[in-house]
Structure formats: C-alpha cells, structure tokens
Amino acid sequence: MTPYSLLFEPIYKEKVWGGRELVRLGKQLPEGVSIGESWELADLPESIAGGRSVIANGELAGITLRQALQQHEKMILGAAKPTPGGGFPLLIKYLDARENLSVQVHPDEVYVRNHPETHLKSEAWYIIDAEPGAVIYRGIDPAVSREQFARHIETDNVIDDLIAIPVKSGDCHYLPSGTCHALGAGIVIAEIQTPSDTTFRVHDWGRTDRELHIEAALECIHFGPYAGNDSLDANENAHQPQIRPIEVKGVSSTPLVISDHFEIEVIRVEASGNLGIVTNGMPIIWMLIEGSAEIESDETASIPLRKGDTVLHPAGLENVHARFPEQSMLLQILLPSPLKGLIA
Q1: Of these residues, 201, 207, 210, 323, which one is catalytic?
Q2: What's the Cα-to-Cα distance from 320 to each of 41, 69, 212, 263, 302, rounded to whole Å?
Q3: pLDDT tens for residues 176-216?
C-alpha cells in the first residue's frame, strides 16, 4: 500500500482531577464527566484497557495501530525499533489538570530490571496553557534524604520537599524515570512519553479513594544532588537545549528536548505556505497546537488537520507536504536515530 499520514480516534480518560478544557483543543468530550487525558497515539499492552489507538482515516481506518504495525511495520517504523512487545515506542497525550495530580514517580531502569511486570516511563510536558500562579512539582530538594522523605509521607508533609517550578504557556520540562513529580492545578499540557502506564503514588492531596504505592515509590525515587535534575536552568539542562530558532521563509524550528527516548521541537509557521515532510526513514509525529493544515500528496487524498489533531507520518512517506493557510504552531516528535552515537 502507499504510505500516508495516519490520524487516530482520541481515547478519553475520566480522572478525578480532570476538567473540560480539552474542548478548546477541538476534543468532542463525553457529556457530564471530568476528562483528564486524551490519549492521542497509544499502543500499550493488551492487558491495559483502552490502551490502543484506532486509525481514523484512509485505507487502514478502523484497525488499531498495533494491527497496522503487524501488517506494515517497515513502512511505519522504518529504521526505528518497536517495543520488546512489538508496539509503537511512544505514548502521546493531552492532559487537563483542573486539580493537582498525585505526587508520583515512574520506575527507573534498575527497578524495571528487578520487576519485569513494570515499565520504564520517561516523559516531557509542553505547557499549552497555565493559569496565573500555576506550578509543576519536579524533583525533590537535594537536601532531603530518603529517610526524611519517608517520614514526611507518614506525616503528610511531602509538598515542602518538592521543587515547585512556576510555568507558563510555551515552557517544556523533561522528567526522566525516577523523578518524583506532580502536575499542578490549572495547567493543560501535551505529554510525550515512553509507552508505559506504571505509576507509583506517594501523596494524593487529601483524596482517599486511590491507592498509594509508598514502598515501590521509595525504591524508584532519585534522591540527592541530582533529584531536581537541573530543572531550573535550561542552559545547564542537557535535555532542554538553549538553542536559537532556525528560521527559513517564515517557518521557525526550535529544539525543546533531546533525550535517549525521543526528541521534541516546536515549529511555528508565521504565514501561509508549504512545509515539506521529510522522514529520512524514521516516523514523525505532529501535534497541532494552533492553527490548521492540509497534508497533500500526488498519490493519496489530502488530509485536513485541525487544532488539537495528532498525526503520525510513517517512515515510508514520500513526496508529501503540508500546506498551512494561516499562522500555526505544532510540536514535532522524533525517535532517536539508531545511528546516534555511532557517528563521530
């Protein structure tokens, strides 16, 4: 089959901390429920309910991304590697935090090796919208020991141990596995992460109807000098490079995150025009945060994109461009090249 750009049916997740703000990203939310997450591109193990995206357009419409990979892995992934279970190696979401999310941590490499039923989860948050005074919590004060933190969990005093970071629209923060964190209230984000739903909670802001996982969390949390992972200064953060935008004919591209798991850049289109989509044999993901676009090709039907859409450009895509009729902004997510580190 001829490769084409893939759209997906959003998977909405009701959450106690969620709200209705994703409507502003064009999401058709179910009535009467608080939606905390819209899973835009998901391919988790079959044991996780509602964890696999269904393709919404073209020849592959109606089947899951996993089924498409089983039929066309080379076309979709190219040189990229699937997960050990044969899935797509990223999970892409939008989150609406009407209330604070739990203070939590995701397993690091050491914990996963010793507990194969769990999965590594490193993630990045791009702040789409934030109310005045909104903060995220990212890392633990390096002066706080594991023993002190454990005592503070028992006495319900963990918040003062966390590093609170004020945020605004356009900020981006990388949270490697092992980072104790919480998304604060009044924030809407795009979340890019490794494909895992393993979360260990240590504090839930007075909510009592959800399980805490204190022993497992304490095994995973990174304490000491690197607990904050230099999150306060992007100039010193290897995952958040301070690089000036590259601008060509009204289109600018700015790197936001470079990690072992994914790379993120923000692309801004200042005026109407065309942008070529060059995969270089690797899949590309776009999250359209503002504006609209039309993906055009001589070989397949055009595909309209609207604000809030997420699209996967397969590795085998050729001779395709996107036409932007107005000012637009998107996140471009790339998988690390398998040649990374091999070329001097």
Answers
A1: 201
A2: 21, 21, 48, 22, 10
A3: 999 999 999 999 999 999 998 889 999 999 998 999 999 99
